Amino acid sequence: MSDGRLPVRRRWLRWTIGVIVTLIVLAIGWVGIRGIGAVNDLQQVSAASSKLKQAIGQGDLDTAAALSARIAHHAGSAHDLTSDPIWSGFGLLPWLGPNFSAVRDVAEIADDVASDALVPVLAAAEELDLASLGLSGGVVDLTPFAQIEPPLAEASATLTSAETRALDIDAGATIPPLADAVREMRSAVTQAATVVGALHGASALLPSMLGGEGPRNYVLAMQNNAELRSSGGIIGAIALLHAENGRITLVQQASTQDFPALDTPIPLSESTVALFEDRPGRYLQNLTSIPDFTEAGPAIATRWQNRFGQSVDGVIAVDAVMTEDLIAATGPLAFGPFTATEDTVVNLLLSEIYASVPDPSAQDEVFSQAAGALLSAALTEAAPKDLVAALAESADERRIRIWSAHEDEEAILSASTLGGALPEDGPQTHVGVLFNDTTGGKMDFYADAAITTSIGTCDGEPTTQVTVTWKNDAPADAGTALPPYVTANGFYGVPAGSTRTLVTVYGPEGATPSHIDGDGEEISVQTALLGSRSAVQHEVLVAPGESSTITVEYQGTGAGERLTVVDHTPMVTAPDVSREQLRCAS
């Protein structure tokens, strides 16, 4: 006869389930409370970080130190709240797990950056005004750089590691609000790593490169984006700079007419010849077609040395669009018969001048005057803080490239974006699009481009698809309304007003093209290897108001990586770069 009690086994089962449910409820409450605290801490870190950047830029180190302490406190708190075994256990759950892991990783990265990067950067800021880099009255004080190099090296290493870890967080696996926060954090860490890395590079390079250990000579090549080349534009003017004990002076200016075509081209790499034949080796103007500035830089130096005889310690290539950033720092600039402002200088140099000054020799003279006036104003009139900001903006847009003839310096430069070397795939995979004009005029002032990447799998293979749309935005009557020097007037076989352009697409390291089409049709292309990257090049002819689209699919090693970034030729108007869902073409 039953006494109304459950069998022992059932009682134990019920108690076990009850205990488990209770523990789950407690655990959920535990991570919920700690999660709210961690999110609040991370929000405080974000808010204080924005103020910290402003304080360092203004040289307000007292405020920066207080903000740094606040950031360290909240970052450490967020890390503590998300690093216990219960939180880690929730990170193993399906679907929800990536969200807990992402919050933990963000908190850990913030803690490391706060404790191991902010302190060294503030130590460097005490030695050198980071808003001016020691620039005063046209002279850079080189003395403090030896003191700030070690702490900046420490901070740079921390931020580089943090960037790698941030890129490993799969934002796509988290809920939308958290995904946005992860991407925002990733962007902030990447920006900080880039800035501090550049500062570290400057601290290591500037003392020697600015003549602290002996005089230096640099060729300055100014590129005209109205006639595009791989690194920005055709070389339109060229000059020699002298650096000694931190002072930079303009020694000599020249035009491309001082460099006649060579009967015997200077040596070029196989990849350059495969894409552009020997034209870069014969014509100074075409040396910036070379995709890798570690090859283009010494070639430009060779042309100068052979023509004028001076020894060259390095080459600096800048494009015309960066004048916009510089004039924002210097104020309006007068040269020749013109006065340019931040809003008018690009239009003036790349378009209006051809109508106002029809003679190409006179145009070269105006360009030389503009370059000389701008350099002088930048070094003597611009507020150091504004000048440094302008140079940083242009460097971020890849409008400045530097090569050094000194191996130790070039090793540092070539590893940075300033070096202009072909990128190496690491945490992020790179693809690239290069534009080289073959119209022979200055029609690329009216050029527009859109670049789309799509990542996924096609036919069971990891796939990266790159689509490039090239558009000629010139007015319909460009053939008659624009000066012959701009349209080339059909001299190279291109109808006046139309543009003819070599579009080069290179893929991830190790991947190979599996499908290529132009406007949906099979097309003939040139191919080359840029290091371990397969490059595909096609020439497009586009009338005013029309466009042409090229699609290249890459498969195999390196393809299909979610963290794929696009490198491209700097243009007058930056291309629209976007990511779309993959639609397999093959």
Question: Can you summarize this structure?
Answer:
With 586 residues, the protein is α+β, with helices and mostly antiparallel strands. It contains 16 helices and 19 strands.
Q: What does it look like?
A:
The protein is α+β, with helices and mostly antiparallel strands and 586 residues long. It folds into 3 domains: 8-207, no CATH class; 216-411, Aminopeptidase (3-Layer(aba) Sandwich); 423-579, no CATH class. It has helices at residues 8-57, 61-81, 85-90, 97-127, 145-168, 176-209, 270-276, 279-282, 293-308, 322-330, 345-356, 360-380, 384-396, 407-414, 478-481, 484-487; strands at 135-136, 139-140, 216-224, 234-244, 247-255, 314-319, 333-335, 338-340, 400-404, 429-437, 447-458, 461-472, 499-506, 512-518, 526-530, 533-542, 547-555, 564-568, 576-579. The strands form 5 sheets. A 5-stranded mixed beta sheet has the order 5-4-3-6-9, sandwiched between helices. It has a 5-stranded mixed beta sheet with strand order 15-16-13-10-18, covered by helices on one side. A hairpin with a 2-residue loop joins strand 1 and strand 2 (139-140).
List the helices and strands and how they pair.
Layout: H1 8-57, H2 61-81, H3 85-90, H4 97-127, E1 135-136, E2 139-140, H5 145-168, H6 176-209, E3 216-224, E4 234-244, E5 247-255, H7 270-276, H8 279-282, H9 293-308, E6 314-319, H10 322-330, E7 333-335, E8 338-340, H11 345-356, H12 360-380, H13 384-396, E9 400-404, H14 407-414, E10 429-437, E11 447-458, E12 461-472, H15 478-481, H16 484-487, E13 499-506, E14 512-518, E15 526-530, E16 533-542, E17 547-555, E18 564-568, E19 576-579
Parallel strand pairs: 3-6, 10-18, 11-19
Antiparallel strand pairs: 1-2, 3-4, 4-5, 6-9, 7-8, 10-13, 11-12, 12-17, 13-16, 14-17, 15-16
Helix pairs in contact: 1-2, 1-4, 2-4, 4-5, 4-6, 5-6, 10-13
